[in-house]
Amino acid sequence: MPPTSSPTTKRLDPHTLATSALEIADAEGLDALTIRRLAQLHDVTPMALYRHFSDKDDLLAAVGDRILADIALPEPTDEPWDVQLRAVLAALVKALRPHPKAAGLTLYRILVSPDGLALAERTMELLVEGGFSTDNAAEVGRQSVCSLITLVTAEPGATEDTDPVAREDGLRAKRASLAALSPHRYPLITAAADTLICPASHDLYYRLGIDLVVAGIRGVRAGLQA
Amino acid sequence: MPPTSSPTTKRLDPHTLATSALEIADAEGLDALTIRRLAQLHDVTPMALYRHFSDKDDLLAAVGDRILADIALPEPTDEPWDVQLRAVLAALVKALRPHPKAAGLTLYRILVSPDGLALAERTMELLVEGGFSTDNAAEVGRQSVCSLITLVTAEPGATEDTDPVAREDGLRAKRASLAALSPHRYPLITAAADTLICPASHDLYYRLGIDLVVAGIRGVRAGLQA
DNA sequence: ACGGTAGGTCTACGTTGTAAACTTGTCAAC
DNA sequence: GTTGACAAGTTTACAACGTAGACCTACCGT
Fold first, then answer.
1. What is the spatial distance between Cα B155 and Cα B103, in angstroms, rounded to a whole number?
2. Residue B100 near residue B29 (C-beta atoms within 8 A)
3. How many other C-beta atoms lie within 10 A of the C-beta of residue B207?
């Protein structure tokens, strides 16, 4: 795996580093993303990274921001607020989906990174348009975004294992663990074991996830107005 | 901080260890929960713990299970399914709330630990009663539970800092970070800054969180039937 | 030409999880 | 009662991690 930019250039820069850090995390999980590993990937001493990041948390924050930067926020339209909100939340999910192992890094960056802030502001905007008070919009928006991040983080099949062998082993182990349950004590879980381990379609999985969040927002709004 | 059980007893056991591991995590965050620390707390060599846990992940899993064991699942009643479901989800939140820093450990234990399984089965039961297919109940139940776990994990004010000084510093830093934003570019975020950093009431925070999830379930069910 | 500084290097330290070989306390069976 | 085996705790050791601090060095504005 060569460095993302031309290997002849010796000069590093934070953006490139964050990008290839993300590649490591995507490929082998967050545990594999170590200072030494990233340095080696760029043919550089580990300490060199500290010229660009104050410490490892700073690097992880940059990776989170890097992911949030992929959000393609839809332009405002004249559609109803809830339709637009759905599109905004879908844009968040779309940006996170390619990085299930690293998506959790965005949780604490939404109110810091510019792209996270843009998402948050737009979300609150639509919520206020939908009738929420500013404070309620803040709370509802926060949880909606957090839920969707978790949706990606907990995506079934996004286990840490990198090679297909270990991954398949992990899946088999999970399947066996559920198959070992008593169908008498846990009739529904055993009946839905396949779905619980790996949903039929990831697209459906995400669609339902977003539906749940949006429906929740609509429902809570109705309740607050009553 | 003395060991949870009598200090004269030399014999360790997994349950006691998991409990005091949880105490460490609650008090000082997950990072402070190291094998050596836990061993020292029990006046024992670090390697002694490996007689009871195969490795650190195993210990963390036990801590997760320990938390799930605190769920007091309400008895079935003749109330409508959604009312009962709300009570079940509230029971989950109630069990997690005392441990915001460790609650994330439960995410991967729900379909493993007996108490997690009981929660999952009961949740699916109520969803099926509400009209969901078994597979949909699985998906909806999964996301609902994950959302609520995240709700606790991301509870504002549950930062890693242990002593009040560092905690206050962290809050101040966050506040300053939001206060530095342009009210012109981010009018809603700056207006709701206080709420975003620390909600007025934690009880309201959790009530709204559960409301959102339940409302989402109700809304999605209506949509699926249409 | 030259001094400062940004960027990369080297060495070193403390902490972490844990493998492997050992001791010891306890109890069942003869 | 002696013994032998097994479970539980100890000792020592190692590799990998994050990172502090002192160093070198190439470049660039004056």
1. 10
2. no
3. 13
Chain B residue with the nearest C-alpha to that of A180: B112
Contacts of A197 (CB under 8 A, 6+ apart): A156, A171, A174, A175, A178
Contact B177 A223 (CB under 8 A): no
For residue A115 the two structure tokens come to 């792209």
Locate tokens 């580093």: which residue?
A17
**Chain B partners of A205 at a C-beta cutoff of 8 Å?**
139
CA pair distance A131, B70, nearest whole angstrom: 38
User: CA separation (Å) from A207 to A81, A156, A214, B53?
Assistant: 18, 14, 11, 39
Count Cβ atoms below 10 Å from residue B203 Cβ, excluding itself: 10
Of B2, B44, B43, B47, the closest CA to residue B20 belongs to: B2
Interface test with B, best of A195, A202, A204, A217 (most B CBs within 10 A): A195
Indicate the angle between helix axes A81-96 and A134-153, nearest 10 degrees: 40
The answer to whether A43 and A7 are in contact (CB under 8 A) is yes
Closest by Cβ to B188, choosing from A124, A211, A217: A124
| Furthest-apart CA atoms within chain A: distance in Å | 65
Helices (H), chain B: 14-28, 35-41, 56-68, 81-96, 114-129, 134-153, 164-179, 187-191, 193-197, 202-225
Give residue-wise pLDDT tens across range A28-46.
999 999 999 999 999 999 9
Pick from A125, A212, A222: CB nearest B140: A212
Task: Give the count of Cβ contacts less than 8 A between chain A and B.
Answer: 163
pTM as predicted: 0.94
Pick out chain A residues at pLDDT < 70: 1-10, 160-161, 226
| B17 close to B46: Cβ distance less than 8 angstroms | no
Map tokens 């009871």 to a residue. Answer: B52
Question: Which pLDDT belongs to residue A226?
Answer: 58
Per-residue pLDDT tens over the stretch B52-61? 999 999 999 9
Cα–Cα nearest to B101, from B167, B165, B41, B178? B167
Element of type H or E holding A179: helix A164-179
Which candidate, A206, A113, A191, A121, places its Cα nearest to that of A156? A206
Distance CA B3, CA B23 (A): 10
* Lookup result for tokens 């012109």: B184
